[in-house]
Amino acid sequence: MATSSAPGDRRAPIGVFDSGVGGLTVLRALREQLPAESLLYLGDTARLPYGTKSAGTVVRYAEQAARVLVERGVKLLVIACNTASAVALEHLSEVFWPLPVIGVVEPGAEAACAASRTGEILVIATEGTVRGGAYERAIQARRADARVVQTACPLFVALAEEGWVRGAIAEAIAHRYLDGVLRERPEADCLVLGCTHFPVLRAAISAAVGPRLTLVDSAETTARVVAAQLERRGLLHPDPAAGRCSFLATDAPARFARVGAVFTGEALAAELTAEAVELVDL
Amino acid sequence: MATSSAPGDRRAPIGVFDSGVGGLTVLRALREQLPAESLLYLGDTARLPYGTKSAGTVVRYAEQAARVLVERGVKLLVIACNTASAVALEHLSEVFWPLPVIGVVEPGAEAACAASRTGEILVIATEGTVRGGAYERAIQARRADARVVQTACPLFVALAEEGWVRGAIAEAIAHRYLDGVLRERPEADCLVLGCTHFPVLRAAISAAVGPRLTLVDSAETTARVVAAQLERRGLLHPDPAAGRCSFLATDAPARFARVGAVFTGEALAAELTAEAVELVDL
Protein backbone atom coordinates (compact mmCIF):
# COMPACT_ATOMS: atom_id res chain seq x y z
CA MET A 1 0.00 0.00 0.00
CA ALA A 2 1.41 3.40 -0.92
CA THR A 3 2.43 5.57 2.01
CA SER A 4 4.03 8.94 2.34
CA SER A 5 6.05 7.98 5.41
CA ALA A 6 9.72 8.79 5.52
CA PRO A 7 11.31 5.65 6.94
CA GLY A 8 14.78 6.63 5.78
CA ASP A 9 14.82 10.32 6.79
CA ARG A 10 16.77 10.96 9.99
CA ARG A 11 15.18 14.39 10.42
CA ALA A 12 11.60 13.11 10.21
CA PRO A 13 9.55 12.93 13.41
CA ILE A 14 8.61 9.83 15.34
CA GLY A 15 4.86 9.21 15.17
CA VAL A 16 3.07 8.18 18.35
CA PHE A 17 -0.63 7.40 18.64
CA ASP A 18 -3.13 6.37 21.27
CA SER A 19 -6.90 6.38 21.69
CA GLY A 20 -6.54 9.54 23.76
CA VAL A 21 -4.20 10.92 26.38
CA GLY A 22 -2.86 7.71 27.97
CA GLY A 23 -0.10 7.37 25.40
CA LEU A 24 1.34 10.66 26.58
CA THR A 25 3.09 8.66 29.32
CA VAL A 26 5.01 6.98 26.49
CA LEU A 27 5.62 10.32 24.77
CA ARG A 28 7.08 11.63 28.01
CA ALA A 29 9.51 8.69 28.25
CA LEU A 30 10.51 9.16 24.60
CA ARG A 31 11.12 12.84 25.21
CA GLU A 32 13.33 12.10 28.21
CA GLN A 33 15.38 9.42 26.47
CA LEU A 34 15.50 10.97 23.00
CA PRO A 35 15.52 14.76 23.43
CA ALA A 36 16.87 15.31 19.92
CA GLU A 37 13.86 13.66 18.27
CA SER A 38 10.73 15.43 17.15
CA LEU A 39 7.54 13.69 18.23
CA LEU A 40 4.19 13.89 16.45
CA TYR A 41 1.41 12.59 18.70
CA LEU A 42 -2.15 11.72 17.67
CA GLY A 43 -4.93 11.12 20.23
CA ASP A 44 -8.01 9.49 18.67
CA THR A 45 -10.27 11.31 21.11
CA ALA A 46 -13.30 11.02 18.80
CA ARG A 47 -13.46 7.29 19.39
CA LEU A 48 -11.82 6.77 22.79
CA PRO A 49 -11.64 4.51 24.70
CA TYR A 50 -10.40 1.56 22.65
CA GLY A 51 -10.24 -0.70 25.72
CA THR A 52 -13.92 -1.68 25.78
CA LYS A 53 -14.22 -2.23 22.02
CA SER A 54 -13.91 -5.36 19.89
CA ALA A 55 -10.64 -6.35 18.22
CA GLY A 56 -11.98 -5.71 14.71
CA THR A 57 -13.07 -2.20 15.56
CA VAL A 58 -9.78 -1.39 17.29
CA VAL A 59 -7.76 -2.61 14.30
CA ARG A 60 -9.82 -0.38 11.98
CA TYR A 61 -9.52 2.67 14.24
CA ALA A 62 -5.78 2.09 14.78
CA GLU A 63 -5.12 1.91 11.04
CA GLN A 64 -6.98 5.17 10.46
CA ALA A 65 -5.09 6.92 13.26
CA ALA A 66 -1.73 5.57 12.11
CA ARG A 67 -2.43 6.64 8.53
CA VAL A 68 -2.67 10.30 9.56
CA LEU A 69 0.84 10.12 11.04
CA VAL A 70 2.24 8.15 8.13
CA GLU A 71 0.88 10.72 5.69
CA ARG A 72 2.70 13.41 7.65
CA GLY A 73 5.99 11.62 7.02
CA VAL A 74 7.08 9.92 10.24
CA LYS A 75 10.21 7.75 10.28
CA LEU A 76 8.95 5.29 12.90
CA LEU A 77 5.55 4.59 14.42
CA VAL A 78 4.85 3.89 18.10
CA ILE A 79 1.49 2.38 19.09
CA ALA A 80 1.32 3.96 22.55
CA CYS A 81 -1.84 2.07 23.50
CA ASN A 82 -1.83 -1.40 24.94
CA THR A 83 -5.20 -2.36 23.49
CA ALA A 84 -4.16 -1.36 19.98
CA SER A 85 -0.69 -2.88 20.38
CA ALA A 86 -2.26 -6.14 21.48
CA VAL A 87 -4.54 -6.50 18.48
CA ALA A 88 -3.17 -4.29 15.68
CA LEU A 89 0.67 -4.42 15.76
CA GLU A 90 0.99 -7.12 13.14
CA HIS A 91 -1.60 -5.56 10.86
CA LEU A 92 -0.03 -2.09 11.01
CA SER A 93 3.48 -3.49 10.46
CA GLU A 94 2.23 -5.15 7.29
CA VAL A 95 0.17 -2.25 5.99
CA PHE A 96 2.88 0.36 6.54
CA TRP A 97 5.93 -1.77 5.71
CA PRO A 98 8.85 -0.87 5.52
CA LEU A 99 8.10 1.68 8.25
CA PRO A 100 9.17 0.29 11.64
CA VAL A 101 6.17 -0.07 13.97
CA ILE A 102 6.69 -0.58 17.71
CA GLY A 103 3.97 -1.46 20.21
CA VAL A 104 4.05 -1.28 24.00
CA VAL A 105 3.15 -4.88 24.86
CA GLU A 106 6.44 -6.56 23.88
CA PRO A 107 8.58 -4.01 25.77
CA GLY A 108 6.26 -4.32 28.78
CA ALA A 109 6.58 -8.11 28.71
CA GLU A 110 10.37 -7.77 28.48
CA ALA A 111 10.44 -5.50 31.52
CA ALA A 112 8.18 -7.84 33.50
CA CYS A 113 10.37 -10.88 32.80
CA ALA A 114 13.42 -8.92 33.94
CA ALA A 115 11.70 -7.71 37.12
CA SER A 116 10.14 -10.96 38.37
CA ARG A 117 12.11 -13.48 40.41
CA THR A 118 9.30 -15.97 41.03
CA GLY A 119 7.84 -15.91 37.51
CA GLU A 120 4.38 -15.19 38.93
CA ILE A 121 3.34 -11.99 37.14
CA LEU A 122 0.15 -9.95 37.48
CA VAL A 123 -1.06 -7.83 34.58
CA ILE A 124 -3.68 -5.09 34.93
CA ALA A 125 -5.14 -3.70 31.73
CA THR A 126 -8.33 -2.76 29.89
CA GLU A 127 -10.99 -5.33 29.06
CA GLY A 128 -9.83 -5.46 25.43
CA THR A 129 -6.19 -6.13 26.30
CA VAL A 130 -7.12 -8.80 28.86
CA ARG A 131 -9.49 -10.53 26.45
CA GLY A 132 -6.81 -10.67 23.76
CA GLY A 133 -4.25 -12.29 26.08
CA ALA A 134 -1.31 -10.59 24.33
CA TYR A 135 0.65 -9.99 27.54
CA GLU A 136 0.35 -13.61 28.57
CA ARG A 137 1.67 -14.76 25.19
CA ALA A 138 4.46 -12.17 25.10
CA ILE A 139 5.63 -13.01 28.62
CA GLN A 140 5.49 -16.76 28.09
CA ALA A 141 7.39 -16.47 24.81
CA ARG A 142 10.26 -15.01 26.85
CA ARG A 143 9.91 -17.13 29.94
CA ALA A 144 8.11 -20.44 29.55
CA ASP A 145 7.83 -20.99 33.32
CA ALA A 146 5.95 -17.71 33.91
CA ARG A 147 2.45 -17.78 35.43
CA VAL A 148 0.50 -14.76 34.27
CA VAL A 149 -2.74 -13.55 35.87
CA GLN A 150 -4.62 -10.75 34.13
CA THR A 151 -7.18 -8.41 35.70
CA ALA A 152 -9.26 -5.87 33.78
CA CYS A 153 -9.40 -2.52 35.61
CA PRO A 154 -11.54 -0.29 33.37
CA LEU A 155 -12.33 2.25 36.10
CA PHE A 156 -8.64 3.17 36.32
CA VAL A 157 -8.94 4.74 32.86
CA ALA A 158 -11.78 7.05 33.92
CA LEU A 159 -9.99 7.83 37.18
CA ALA A 160 -6.81 8.83 35.34
CA GLU A 161 -8.77 10.92 32.83
CA GLU A 162 -10.50 12.71 35.72
CA GLY A 163 -7.10 13.45 37.29
CA TRP A 164 -8.06 11.75 40.56
CA VAL A 165 -4.74 9.95 40.63
CA ARG A 166 -3.98 9.93 44.36
CA GLY A 167 -5.85 9.56 47.62
CA ALA A 168 -8.57 7.47 49.22
CA ILE A 169 -10.83 6.90 46.19
CA ALA A 170 -8.03 5.78 43.88
CA GLU A 171 -6.65 3.48 46.57
CA ALA A 172 -10.09 2.02 47.40
CA ILE A 173 -10.63 1.20 43.73
CA ALA A 174 -7.17 -0.37 43.51
CA HIS A 175 -7.93 -2.49 46.59
CA ARG A 176 -11.24 -3.64 45.14
CA TYR A 177 -9.60 -4.72 41.88
CA LEU A 178 -6.47 -6.28 43.37
CA ASP A 179 -6.97 -7.61 46.90
CA GLY A 180 -8.53 -10.86 45.68
CA VAL A 181 -5.81 -11.73 43.21
CA LEU A 182 -3.07 -10.78 45.68
CA ARG A 183 -4.53 -13.23 48.22
CA GLU A 184 -4.85 -15.96 45.60
CA ARG A 185 -1.34 -15.47 44.25
CA PRO A 186 1.02 -15.14 47.19
CA GLU A 187 4.04 -15.81 44.95
CA ALA A 188 3.35 -12.87 42.64
CA ASP A 189 6.17 -10.32 42.79
CA CYS A 190 5.57 -8.14 39.72
CA LEU A 191 2.61 -6.06 38.53
CA VAL A 192 2.53 -4.89 34.92
CA LEU A 193 0.69 -1.61 34.31
CA GLY A 194 -0.69 -2.87 31.00
CA CYS A 195 -2.47 0.31 29.94
CA THR A 196 -0.74 3.58 29.17
CA HIS A 197 -3.23 5.40 31.41
CA PHE A 198 -2.10 3.53 34.51
CA PRO A 199 1.38 4.99 35.21
CA VAL A 200 -0.21 8.21 36.49
CA LEU A 201 -1.95 6.08 39.17
CA ARG A 202 1.34 4.48 40.20
CA ALA A 203 1.38 5.95 43.73
CA ALA A 204 -2.18 4.85 44.54
CA ILE A 205 -1.69 1.37 43.05
CA SER A 206 1.60 1.02 44.88
CA ALA A 207 0.00 2.01 48.20
CA ALA A 208 -2.76 -0.56 47.66
CA VAL A 209 -0.55 -3.52 46.70
CA GLY A 210 2.28 -2.83 49.17
CA PRO A 211 6.02 -3.34 48.74
CA ARG A 212 5.79 -7.00 47.69
CA LEU A 213 5.19 -6.17 44.04
CA THR A 214 7.50 -4.39 41.63
CA LEU A 215 5.43 -2.13 39.37
CA VAL A 216 6.41 -2.30 35.72
CA ASP A 217 5.23 0.04 33.01
CA SER A 218 6.11 -0.19 29.37
CA ALA A 219 6.76 3.51 28.74
CA GLU A 220 10.48 3.52 29.57
CA THR A 221 11.16 0.12 28.04
CA THR A 222 9.32 1.17 24.87
CA ALA A 223 11.43 4.32 24.65
CA ARG A 224 14.57 2.20 24.97
CA VAL A 225 13.39 -0.12 22.19
CA VAL A 226 12.68 2.90 19.97
CA ALA A 227 16.15 4.33 20.68
CA ALA A 228 17.80 1.00 19.85
CA GLN A 229 15.84 0.63 16.58
CA LEU A 230 16.70 4.13 15.45
CA GLU A 231 20.35 3.59 16.26
CA ARG A 232 20.49 0.25 14.47
CA ARG A 233 18.94 1.80 11.35
CA GLY A 234 21.13 4.91 11.47
CA LEU A 235 18.05 7.05 11.99
CA LEU A 236 18.87 9.01 15.16
CA HIS A 237 18.35 12.71 14.59
CA PRO A 238 21.73 14.37 13.93
CA ASP A 239 20.95 17.68 15.65
CA PRO A 240 20.77 17.44 19.46
CA ALA A 241 18.67 20.61 19.82
CA ALA A 242 16.04 19.70 17.25
CA GLY A 243 13.38 17.99 19.38
CA ARG A 244 9.83 19.36 19.14
CA CYS A 245 6.48 17.90 20.19
CA SER A 246 3.32 18.43 18.14
CA PHE A 247 -0.12 17.12 18.97
CA LEU A 248 -3.15 16.11 16.93
CA ALA A 249 -6.54 15.16 18.36
CA THR A 250 -9.48 13.75 16.41
CA ASP A 251 -11.95 15.57 18.67
CA ALA A 252 -12.14 18.20 21.42
CA PRO A 253 -8.51 19.43 21.33
CA ALA A 254 -9.06 21.74 24.31
CA ARG A 255 -10.11 18.80 26.50
CA PHE A 256 -7.15 16.83 25.16
CA ALA A 257 -4.76 19.54 26.31
CA ARG A 258 -6.39 19.91 29.72
CA VAL A 259 -6.57 16.19 30.53
CA GLY A 260 -3.25 15.52 28.83
CA ALA A 261 -1.34 17.67 31.31
CA VAL A 262 -1.95 14.96 33.94
CA PHE A 263 -0.01 12.54 31.74
CA THR A 264 2.89 14.52 30.36
CA GLY A 265 4.06 16.12 33.59
CA GLU A 266 4.72 19.81 33.98
CA ALA A 267 7.66 20.14 31.62
CA LEU A 268 5.62 19.16 28.57
CA ALA A 269 2.23 20.54 29.63
CA ALA A 270 3.05 23.99 28.27
CA GLU A 271 3.54 22.55 24.77
CA LEU A 272 0.18 20.76 24.81
CA THR A 273 -1.69 22.60 22.11
CA ALA A 274 -3.50 20.12 19.92
CA GLU A 275 -4.55 20.60 16.33
CA ALA A 276 -7.90 19.04 15.42
CA VAL A 277 -7.80 16.45 12.63
CA GLU A 278 -10.58 14.47 10.98
CA LEU A 279 -10.35 10.73 10.50
CA VAL A 280 -12.03 8.96 7.64
CA ASP A 281 -13.80 5.82 8.77
CA LEU A 282 -12.90 3.07 6.29
CA MET B 1 -34.31 13.70 3.03
CA ALA B 2 -35.90 10.34 2.12
CA THR B 3 -36.47 8.00 5.01
CA SER B 4 -38.00 4.58 5.36
CA SER B 5 -39.51 5.33 8.76
CA ALA B 6 -43.14 4.49 9.39
CA PRO B 7 -44.45 7.53 11.24
CA GLY B 8 -48.08 6.62 10.55
CA ASP B 9 -47.99 2.88 11.30
CA ARG B 10 -49.44 2.02 14.72
CA ARG B 11 -47.82 -1.43 14.67
CA ALA B 12 -44.32 -0.13 14.00
CA PRO B 13 -41.81 -0.16 16.85
CA ILE B 14 -40.56 2.81 18.84
CA GLY B 15 -36.86 3.45 18.13
CA VAL B 16 -34.60 4.25 21.08
CA PHE B 17 -30.89 5.02 20.86
CA ASP B 18 -28.02 5.88 23.15
CA SER B 19 -24.23 5.86 22.98
CA GLY B 20 -24.30 2.56 24.86
CA VAL B 21 -26.22 0.98 27.70
CA GLY B 22 -27.29 4.06 29.70
CA GLY B 23 -30.41 4.59 27.60
CA LEU B 24 -31.67 1.20 28.77
CA THR B 25 -32.97 3.01 31.86
CA VAL B 26 -35.29 4.87 29.47
CA LEU B 27 -36.17 1.66 27.65
CA ARG B 28 -37.13 0.12 30.98
CA ALA B 29 -39.47 3.03 31.79
CA LEU B 30 -41.02 2.81 28.29
CA ARG B 31 -41.55 -0.90 28.74
CA GLU B 32 -43.28 -0.38 32.09
CA GLN B 33 -45.54 2.41 30.86
CA LEU B 34 -46.21 1.10 27.36
CA PRO B 35 -46.20 -2.70 27.53
CA ALA B 36 -48.06 -3.00 24.22
CA GLU B 37 -45.33 -1.23 22.25
CA SER B 38 -42.41 -2.92 20.55
CA LEU B 39 -39.09 -1.24 21.25
CA LEU B 40 -36.05 -1.31 18.98
CA TYR B 41 -32.94 -0.17 20.86
CA LEU B 42 -29.57 0.79 19.37
CA GLY B 43 -26.44 1.20 21.50
CA ASP B 44 -23.62 2.97 19.62
CA THR B 45 -21.01 0.99 21.56
CA ALA B 46 -18.37 1.45 18.85
CA ARG B 47 -18.11 5.13 19.65
CA LEU B 48 -19.22 5.39 23.28
CA PRO B 49 -19.08 7.51 25.36
CA TYR B 50 -20.60 10.59 23.74
CA GLY B 51 -20.27 12.63 26.94
CA THR B 52 -16.62 13.63 26.52
CA LYS B 53 -16.90 14.43 22.80
CA SER B 54 -17.51 17.70 20.96
CA ALA B 55 -20.99 18.80 19.88
CA GLY B 56 -20.21 18.42 16.17
CA THR B 57 -19.01 14.86 16.59
CA VAL B 58 -22.00 13.91 18.76
CA VAL B 59 -24.45 15.34 16.19
CA ARG B 60 -22.80 13.28 13.43
CA TYR B 61 -22.76 10.08 15.50
CA ALA B 62 -26.37 10.62 16.63
CA GLU B 63 -27.59 11.04 13.06
CA GLN B 64 -25.86 7.83 11.98
CA ALA B 65 -27.32 5.89 14.91
CA ALA B 66 -30.80 7.32 14.37
CA ARG B 67 -30.67 6.49 10.67
CA VAL B 68 -30.29 2.77 11.39
CA LEU B 69 -33.52 2.83 13.39
CA VAL B 70 -35.33 5.01 10.87
CA GLU B 71 -34.38 2.61 8.09
CA ARG B 72 -35.91 -0.22 10.09
CA GLY B 73 -39.23 1.60 10.12
CA VAL B 74 -39.80 3.07 13.58
CA LYS B 75 -42.88 5.23 14.23
CA LEU B 76 -41.23 7.50 16.80
CA LEU B 77 -37.62 8.11 17.83
CA VAL B 78 -36.37 8.55 21.40
CA ILE B 79 -32.90 10.00 21.97
CA ALA B 80 -32.21 8.16 25.24
CA CYS B 81 -28.93 10.00 25.83
CA ASN B 82 -28.70 13.36 27.51
CA THR B 83 -25.59 14.43 25.63
CA ALA B 84 -27.15 13.68 22.25
CA SER B 85 -30.52 15.17 23.28
CA ALA B 86 -28.76 18.34 24.36
CA VAL B 87 -26.96 18.92 21.06
CA ALA B 88 -28.77 16.90 18.37
CA LEU B 89 -32.53 17.02 19.04
CA GLU B 90 -33.25 19.90 16.69
CA HIS B 91 -31.04 18.50 13.94
CA LEU B 92 -32.60 15.02 14.09
CA SER B 93 -36.13 16.45 14.18
CA GLU B 94 -35.37 18.33 10.98
CA VAL B 95 -33.54 15.53 9.18
CA PHE B 96 -36.15 12.87 9.95
CA TRP B 97 -39.27 15.05 9.76
CA PRO B 98 -42.21 14.15 9.95
CA LEU B 99 -41.06 11.42 12.34
CA PRO B 100 -41.60 12.57 15.94
CA VAL B 101 -38.27 12.78 17.81
CA ILE B 102 -38.21 13.02 21.61
CA GLY B 103 -35.15 13.73 23.73
CA VAL B 104 -34.65 13.29 27.46
CA VAL B 105 -33.59 16.83 28.43
CA GLU B 106 -36.98 18.56 28.07
CA PRO B 107 -38.84 15.87 30.08
CA GLY B 108 -36.08 15.98 32.72
CA ALA B 109 -36.38 19.76 32.98
CA GLU B 110 -40.16 19.43 33.29
CA ALA B 111 -39.78 16.93 36.13
CA ALA B 112 -37.25 19.15 37.91
CA CYS B 113 -39.49 22.21 37.77
CA ALA B 114 -42.34 20.18 39.21
CA ALA B 115 -40.17 18.75 42.01
CA SER B 116 -38.42 21.92 43.22
CA ARG B 117 -40.05 24.29 45.72
CA THR B 118 -37.15 26.74 46.08
CA GLY B 119 -36.24 26.92 42.37
CA GLU B 120 -32.61 26.11 43.20
CA ILE B 121 -31.88 23.06 41.06
CA LEU B 122 -28.68 21.01 40.76
CA VAL B 123 -27.93 19.10 37.58
CA ILE B 124 -25.32 16.36 37.33
CA ALA B 125 -24.38 15.19 33.86
CA THR B 126 -21.51 14.40 31.50
CA GLU B 127 -18.99 17.03 30.44
CA GLY B 128 -20.68 17.40 27.06
CA THR B 129 -24.15 18.01 28.51
CA VAL B 130 -22.82 20.48 31.08
CA ARG B 131 -20.83 22.37 28.46
CA GLY B 132 -23.87 22.71 26.23
CA GLY B 133 -26.04 24.13 29.04
CA ALA B 134 -29.23 22.56 27.63
CA TYR B 135 -30.69 21.74 31.05
CA GLU B 136 -30.21 25.26 32.27
CA ARG B 137 -32.01 26.64 29.22
CA ALA B 138 -34.82 24.06 29.37
CA ILE B 139 -35.41 24.67 33.08
CA GLN B 140 -35.32 28.45 32.79
CA ALA B 141 -37.70 28.37 29.82
CA ARG B 142 -40.25 26.76 32.17
CA ARG B 143 -39.41 28.66 35.31
CA ALA B 144 -37.67 32.00 34.90
CA ASP B 145 -36.82 32.28 38.61
CA ALA B 146 -34.90 28.99 38.67
CA ARG B 147 -31.22 28.96 39.65
CA VAL B 148 -29.47 26.03 37.99
CA VAL B 149 -26.05 24.73 38.98
CA GLN B 150 -24.48 22.07 36.80
CA THR B 151 -21.73 19.63 37.80
CA ALA B 152 -19.99 17.25 35.41
CA CYS B 153 -19.58 13.77 36.96
CA PRO B 154 -17.83 11.71 34.27
CA LEU B 155 -16.65 8.99 36.66
CA PHE B 156 -20.27 8.03 37.38
CA VAL B 157 -20.51 6.70 33.82
CA ALA B 158 -17.56 4.34 34.27
CA LEU B 159 -18.83 3.32 37.70
CA ALA B 160 -22.26 2.44 36.29
CA GLU B 161 -20.71 0.54 33.38
CA GLU B 162 -18.57 -1.43 35.84
CA GLY B 163 -21.70 -2.30 37.84
CA TRP B 164 -20.24 -0.83 41.05
CA VAL B 165 -23.50 0.95 41.74
CA ARG B 166 -23.68 0.71 45.56
CA GLY B 167 -21.32 0.86 48.50
CA ALA B 168 -18.39 2.83 49.80
CA ILE B 169 -16.61 3.62 46.52
CA ALA B 170 -19.74 4.89 44.75
CA GLU B 171 -20.66 7.00 47.77
CA ALA B 172 -17.14 8.42 48.17
CA ILE B 173 -17.15 9.49 44.52
CA ALA B 174 -20.60 11.05 44.95
CA HIS B 175 -19.36 12.96 48.02
CA ARG B 176 -16.31 14.23 46.16
CA TYR B 177 -18.41 15.51 43.27
CA LEU B 178 -21.27 16.96 45.31
CA ASP B 179 -20.23 18.03 48.82
CA GLY B 180 -18.86 21.37 47.62
CA VAL B 181 -21.91 22.41 45.62
CA LEU B 182 -24.25 21.28 48.42
CA ARG B 183 -22.41 23.56 50.87
CA GLU B 184 -22.45 26.46 48.42
CA ARG B 185 -26.14 26.05 47.57
CA PRO B 186 -28.04 25.51 50.83
CA GLU B 187 -31.35 26.33 49.11
CA ALA B 188 -31.05 23.55 46.54
CA ASP B 189 -33.81 20.98 46.92
CA CYS B 190 -33.71 19.03 43.67
CA LEU B 191 -30.98 17.05 41.90
CA VAL B 192 -31.46 16.14 38.24
CA LEU B 193 -29.76 12.91 37.14
CA GLY B 194 -28.88 14.40 33.76
CA CYS B 195 -27.31 11.32 32.23
CA THR B 196 -29.16 8.09 31.49
CA HIS B 197 -26.37 6.13 33.21
CA PHE B 198 -26.99 7.76 36.56
CA PRO B 199 -30.34 6.26 37.68
CA VAL B 200 -28.60 2.94 38.48
CA LEU B 201 -26.47 4.89 41.00
CA ARG B 202 -29.53 6.42 42.62
CA ALA B 203 -29.06 4.68 46.01
CA ALA B 204 -25.41 5.77 46.35
CA ILE B 205 -26.10 9.33 45.20
CA SER B 206 -29.06 9.54 47.52
CA ALA B 207 -26.98 8.32 50.47
CA ALA B 208 -24.33 10.94 49.71
CA VAL B 209 -26.64 13.94 49.29
CA GLY B 210 -29.05 13.07 52.10
CA PRO B 211 -32.82 13.60 52.29
CA ARG B 212 -32.71 17.34 51.48
CA LEU B 213 -32.69 16.77 47.73
CA THR B 214 -35.35 15.14 45.58
CA LEU B 215 -33.65 13.06 42.88
CA VAL B 216 -35.20 13.48 39.45
CA ASP B 217 -34.46 11.35 36.44
CA SER B 218 -35.87 11.82 33.00
CA ALA B 219 -36.64 8.17 32.21
CA GLU B 220 -40.18 8.10 33.59
CA THR B 221 -41.08 11.58 32.41
CA THR B 222 -39.76 10.77 28.95
CA ALA B 223 -41.89 7.64 28.83
CA ARG B 224 -44.94 9.73 29.77
CA VAL B 225 -44.17 12.24 27.00
CA VAL B 226 -43.83 9.38 24.50
CA ALA B 227 -47.15 7.90 25.62
CA ALA B 228 -48.88 11.27 25.29
CA GLN B 229 -47.44 11.87 21.79
CA LEU B 230 -48.49 8.43 20.56
CA GLU B 231 -51.97 8.91 21.95
CA ARG B 232 -52.35 12.37 20.43
CA ARG B 233 -51.32 11.06 17.01
CA GLY B 234 -53.49 7.93 17.25
CA LEU B 235 -50.36 5.77 17.16
CA LEU B 236 -50.72 3.61 20.26
CA HIS B 237 -50.33 -0.06 19.37
CA PRO B 238 -53.78 -1.66 19.11
CA ASP B 239 -52.77 -5.09 20.46
CA PRO B 240 -52.01 -5.12 24.21
CA ALA B 241 -49.92 -8.31 24.03
CA ALA B 242 -47.68 -7.21 21.16
CA GLY B 243 -44.70 -5.65 22.99
CA ARG B 244 -41.24 -6.98 22.12
CA CYS B 245 -37.77 -5.57 22.74
CA SER B 246 -34.96 -5.96 20.21
CA PHE B 247 -31.42 -4.69 20.59
CA LEU B 248 -28.72 -3.55 18.19
CA ALA B 249 -25.15 -2.68 19.14
CA THR B 250 -22.52 -1.12 16.87
CA ASP B 251 -19.76 -3.09 18.59
CA ALA B 252 -19.16 -5.90 21.09
CA PRO B 253 -22.77 -7.14 21.47
CA ALA B 254 -21.79 -9.66 24.17
CA ARG B 255 -20.40 -6.88 26.38
CA PHE B 256 -23.51 -4.81 25.65
CA ALA B 257 -25.73 -7.61 26.95
CA ARG B 258 -23.59 -8.22 30.05
CA VAL B 259 -23.26 -4.56 31.07
CA GLY B 260 -26.81 -3.79 29.95
CA ALA B 261 -28.33 -6.12 32.53
CA VAL B 262 -27.31 -3.59 35.23
CA PHE B 263 -29.55 -1.03 33.52
CA THR B 264 -32.63 -2.92 32.46
CA GLY B 265 -33.32 -4.72 35.71
CA GLU B 266 -33.94 -8.45 35.93
CA ALA B 267 -37.21 -8.62 34.03
CA LEU B 268 -35.64 -7.44 30.78
CA ALA B 269 -32.13 -8.85 31.22
CA ALA B 270 -33.16 -12.21 29.77
CA GLU B 271 -34.18 -10.54 26.49
CA LEU B 272 -30.85 -8.74 26.13
CA THR B 273 -29.42 -10.38 23.06
CA ALA B 274 -27.96 -7.75 20.80
CA GLU B 275 -27.46 -7.98 17.07
CA ALA B 276 -24.27 -6.34 15.77
CA VAL B 277 -24.78 -3.55 13.20
CA GLU B 278 -22.27 -1.46 11.29
CA LEU B 279 -22.56 2.31 11.12
CA VAL B 280 -21.33 4.27 8.16
CA ASP B 281 -19.37 7.35 9.20
CA LEU B 282 -20.64 10.25 7.10
Write up this protein.
By secondary structure, chain A is an alpha/beta fold. The first copy, chain A, folds into 2 domains: 14-103 and 220-276, Rossmann fold, CATH 3.40.50; 106-218, Rossmann fold (3-Layer(aba) Sandwich). Chain A has 12 helices and 10 strands. The first copy, chain A, has helices spanning 24-33, 55-71, 82-95, 105-115, 127-132, 134-142, 154-162, 168-184, 202-209, 218-232, 253-264, 266-269; strands spanning 14-18, 39-43, 76-79, 101-103, 120-125, 147-152, 190-193, 214-217, 245-249, 274-276. The first copy, chain A, has a 6-stranded parallel beta sheet, sandwiched between helices. In chain A, strands 6-5-7-8 form a 4-stranded parallel beta sheet, sandwiched between helices. In chain A, strand 7 (190-193), helix 9 and strand 8 form a beta-alpha-beta unit. In chain A, helix 2 (55-71) crosses helix 3 (82-95), helix 4 packs across helix 6 and helix 4 crosses helix 10. Chain A is globular. The two termini of chain A are 15 Å apart. The model of chain A has no long low-confidence stretch (mean pLDDT 92).
